[in-house]
Amino acid sequence: MANKRKRVAKEPSNDTLPSQKRSKKDAAGANGSAKSKASKALDKSPFTEHPTVDERKRELELYNKLGSEDVGDRIDAADAIISGLLGGECVPEQVLLRHLEKRLFRGLASGRNASRLGFSLVLTEILGQLFGEKDLGSSKYAGLTFDKVLGILLEKTHTGGAGSGQEERDHYFGQLFGIECFVRAGILSADKARWLLILDLLLKLSAKKSWLKSQCGYVVVQAVSQMSKKVAEATLEKLSEEGFAKSPEGVGIWIAALDRFPDMKVPAQPWQHPLAVTSLSTLPAALKDSGREATEENANKKSRQGNWTAQLHFVWDLILAHFVKLGAQSKKDGAEQFKQFWNRVVDESFFSKNASDSQKFSGFMIFQKMLEGATDSPSVVSNLFSKNLMVCLMNQASKEDRYLHRAALKALKAIEAVVETEPALLPIVLKELLGKQGAYNFEQRTNTKTVDKLLQQTTPATVKSVLKTLQLKEPAKSGLDEPKYYQALGGYLFRLASVPSEATDVDTSSKSVPGLAINALADLAYSNKSVPVSIRETLRARSTSAFAKLVSRPEDFGHLCNAILSIEADVDPDDEIAGSVLPDAYERLKNLLDPGKSTDETREPRQALALLHAVGILQFYNQDPDVMDLFEELGECYDKLESHGRGSDQGISEYLVEILLAMVARPSSLMRQVSQQVFEAFTGYMSEDALKLLTDPLEVEESAKGQQALFSTEDEDMMDAEAADDDGGESDEEELDSDVEIVNLEDAGSEGPDDSDEEEGSGDEEDDEEGGEEAVQDKDQEALDALDNALAEVLGSHRLDKDNEAASDDDESDMTDSEMMVVDEKLTEIFKHRAKTSSKKKENKDAKETVINFKHRVLDLLAIYVKKEAARPLLVPMHVFDLVPALVRLIRTTTAKPLANKACDMIQTLSKSLKKARGGRQVATVIKPSEALGLGGLVSLMEELHDEVAKDMSHAFTRAVSTACLAMASVTCCDEARREEVFALYSRTQLRWFNGEVKIQAAFFVDWLNWCQSHASTAAAAAAAVTGRQEEEGEEEEE
């Protein structure tokens, strides 16, 4: 037994004093330091009775480290001190007594750093060895009896009635920590008298200062776990006699004892079990102030804000553990007992109308404690959302000026965190928030996004239960008018449809969250006959937005098509489209979705065409006037795709481009997403004529005239719809879900192709911008001057700054009525003309923005084509290069900088993709004869670009043209016959520049020379490698 390992590595737990607030320093000391300190090993030799100077320094160092905030230092020092006192043969009694009196018990009353924690650690170990298993108190230290050691504690922590309030507080806490050392040492269970002596001290201490009562109670709870049944019975009897039972501490002690000994004998008063149904009438009074920090004054005064504490009483941990354990044994009984306890003790007490703000604050903390601790007990969670709590929660969260607003928001965040951790709880929580005790429009009532965030945690396992909670059989049960109910339901389904699909649920609508949600939303917007007409348009707009979100995620493609197929809306039997065209569209959509009819080559185009059919059917139900033409064009595309490979698929790309251009012209996110996905699937089908249809709009003037050229066949209804979109008028929530895109032309597009290029060419661009701004300002000033002159002529007056220029008029007289009428008519005519001019300016501005926006959408499609086709590893279609002249002219002519930047980016992408496709080589490898490759056409395109580069001296434009020319040169120079033509072209252009015939940035020729230098270096390295191999082969032959 003498060689038994000492228990010194175990630090006292941080929940020793659960209700006592600690300073940041204490907390840091308790939790330990993240920074490890390298220190030398401490001396563990025995302490002497008459220490020398060096030995006293050693003691001082050890006890200083024992009070350190670093947990590692404390443990090392405790190990050294215990080894120095009780290690080996143990020190003499006088030495141990000196350390107990002068150091350890005395140090408990010190408030320095973490002294109490460190000194408690050593005392607990020493007391355990003195009066525990080893019983050193009888064998080696006969003079150190239990009573004597306890007396030393009381003596060293006695306040003596003198000193400041802080000193008194330190002594009381020192005594409490010392008593706890006796409990944690485990030396009281064997001797009932010892425990009763300690219990008396705890009761006296709790009576001296009310703020010590909870800490004293918690020490008793710790002792209960070590007691025998008889000692526990005696303890409860003693507490009952002292009136300690009807307090939060007493409730906790009773619960701890009864959970340990369910069949123990308890006092008749005040209760058999505090959580029994018979005790619930008196329990609220005992727990009423369990959330308030006790003070010396609040015993006879009402609670005040200053008395609140953010730390709950330990009794709630014991209550939670009790009901969780009970629920695990019997779910039905446990749920019923907890429901009665929660409603009577918490809901009707802490959240009653007469409850104070401090009690409601405590109630919110209790709610969070129970919610976070009962994640494995759904029956407990479902009963937490009681009537009074929900009313208080919604009221306090709704406005920032509410007293408990932050506490309510914290409770809502706790709900979100618990559901994120345990998604299986979502149906239960959602049912309570939107159900009878909550509000179906919970988000509107609380001005939060709680339900939205909760819905994001929906999983395939919970989606059906969630939908059942959202879709009420009787809308009247929601407590809302029918339009408001359906609007709220549409919002919830929209958010649910935005939940990403899991990888295992691709194209499985029966299990997928967005699949089931979009089906429900489509049914609500198009098929449900009970939906009021007034709200139907809003729901359809929301479903369109949901479709747009699904389109942006390729894994959800099947969900969108299935949702369209599931629509069963009433249609007019006399409608030609509904009677003949629509069934054909449905039939084609089903055939396109049939996986058995797809090959590896046609799978993507068939899915893209299916997507177009689905959007067309959706447009029909949205009563789009152009849907008839769309179905005809889709029919042509379908027939040509079906005959692909048999020579009958000519012209499919032209049809598709016409359809896609009509789609991107609409201010709709869905149309933009669909057009891009469809175009990407058909890039390999694009012909020269189809690409010309895309590049022609880039040449259009950015003005009202250009708008008329682009949209000359535009339907008046579509123009009205766009005007209505501009007017707005929807609520904030509807704006968030709207499918209409708001484009900011200043932010659209991307930055320039190269930041350095932008900086170098910024001077010219800034001059252009400044000149444009000055021109606009001059025009505005001219208009104002004209207005001033017209008013001066009519009124016979002048501006104040023109007094010197005005002629003197001494015989001023009042105007007659007829003269005033004439003046009034002239003023009316002037301001009418002014308003007409302003309206015309606004129309021109809107037309310019429309054209620029359309060009952005066209560039998005072309960017997809360039990125995909230019990266082909074997053969790049020459059609890619046909796009370059249009891009270059757009960079030069456009007035929108973002548009020019986007075109520059496309040229950079073309160059990089070509280089990547040829493996990083400067010049492509010849695969086919030059005529088959169309290299002669590339030389002609380069000549056209060399003419273009002289039309604009801006650096960004020059760099874009140079990049395009070098990209073409890298392909053309693969043929030696065409290589000379390229060099001759650059030579002619350089000579014209030298002769002053054209003005070109020098960077254009510098880029060409750098390109040549790079190719020359590569060629030289390749030639050297060949020569080296030949020499090696020659040497081998000689050998």
TrEMBL record:
Write out the transmembrane intervals: none
User: What ranges does the record list as Acidic residues composition bias?
Assistant: 713-740, 748-775, 806-817
Bias kind Basic and acidic residues: ranges: 40-54, 796-805
The family this protein is said to belong to: Belongs to the MYBBP1A family.
Return the InterPro entries for the record.
ARM-type_fold (IPR016024), DNA_pol_V/MYBBP1A (IPR007015)
Protein name as catalogued:
DNA polymerase phi-domain-containing protein
Q: Where is this region: Disordered?
A: 1-54, 710-777, 795-818
Keyword Nucleus: yes or no? yes
